Amino acid sequence: MVPLQWFIWLSVALFMVGVFGFLTRRSIIMMFLSIEVMLNAVNLSLVSFAHFLNDLRGEVLALFVIAVAASEAAIGLAILIALFRNRETAQIDEVKELKG
Questions:
Q1: From CA 72, how far away is CA 61, in angstroms rounded?
Q2: How many structural domains are present in the chain?
Q3: Of 5, 19, 56, 94, which is the most buried if we count CB atoms within 10 A?
Q4: Burial class for 42, CB neighbours closer than 10 Å (0-12, 13-18, 19+)
Q5: What sections of the chain are H helices per DSSP?
Q6: Domain at 15, CATH number
Q7: What is the dihedral of CA 83, 85, 88, 90, to 10 degrees?
Q8: What letter would DSSP give residue 95?
């Protein structure tokens, strides 16, 4: 059986990859993907703790995190499409202000 520490280290590594991607990328799409990687790292740690503690609360919470991630992706994509129609760019550096 795989020890819990391996899952936690994998979760930490995924979360750090997500943070690095969010801080270094300037494309809004890549920033959303980095946020998704961070949320998946949290899900991995929740499910691994739930498995090792023989408790379903972590897995149920992971399902709620998946639902929040899906809604975040849908709303973020809608905002990105509206921004691209108005500004014709998906780079965060070229969008200085949101009003008019």
A1: 16
A2: 1
A3: 19
A4: middle
A5: 4-24, 28-53, 57-87
A6: 1.10.287.3510
A7: 40
A8: -
